[in-house]
Amino acid sequence: MDIRSILGTLGTAIGLVRAVPQLVRLLRAREAYGVSVDTAATSSIVSLGWATYGVLTNQPYVSFASGPSGVVFAITTFLALRFGRQVREFKIAPLWFCVLLLAGVIAGKNGLGMVLPISLLVANIPQLWVAYKESNLADLSLGTWLLSVTDGLVWGVYSLIQQDISIMLNAFFQLTTSGLIVALKLAHKARIQKQGSFPQGFGQQVARKPRP
Fold this sequence. Notes:
The protein starts with a helix and ends in a 5-residue tail after the last helix. It contains eight helices and no strands. It is mostly helical. α1 (about 5-15) runs parallel beside α4, α2 (about 20-30) packs parallel to α4 and α6 packs antiparallel against α7 (about 165-195). The longest helix is centred in the middle third of the chain and has 42 residues, at about 90-135. It has helices at about 5-15, 20-30, 35-55, 60-80, 90-135, 140-160, 165-195, 200-205.
């Protein structure tokens, strides 16, 4: 097995599980504080777009990594809506579905290859904004975004070997935006731990206060 196959296999494995920690977090907490439903929906659409691109360009690792992830993100979207997020938060997802559909219909794999690299940036911006804007990130899964950072690193190296500029740009945007989200989540955790030095119950009240 060559290095490209190893990276592809590793990227596929990460892609299959990276959305699962957020899904599990929602199922356990039954709340969605700090979770962007717009990012979840857009990520589902983008993942299915990458699965299509993988089929069209004969890169099965890309398809296997992206397809199941798209399904998990779709379930996450449904649960986030059920546990407190609002339909009015959808801003980018409907627009980007139309963009990817038109790109694929009009220009096939070349169209997807031009649009998909910036799709990860577009998908993660709502979550980055929510993580920055909202004071309560209790239900935002650190595990999902750490896996997303790792995913970006793996596919970045894969793209250099494969010489696929579309995957390369996607990996760069994934690494940078996911890294910023991780930083905001860690800052939130540090703030909550600091509040834990106050009388018992104070930190819990802050952690579960209503969304702004």
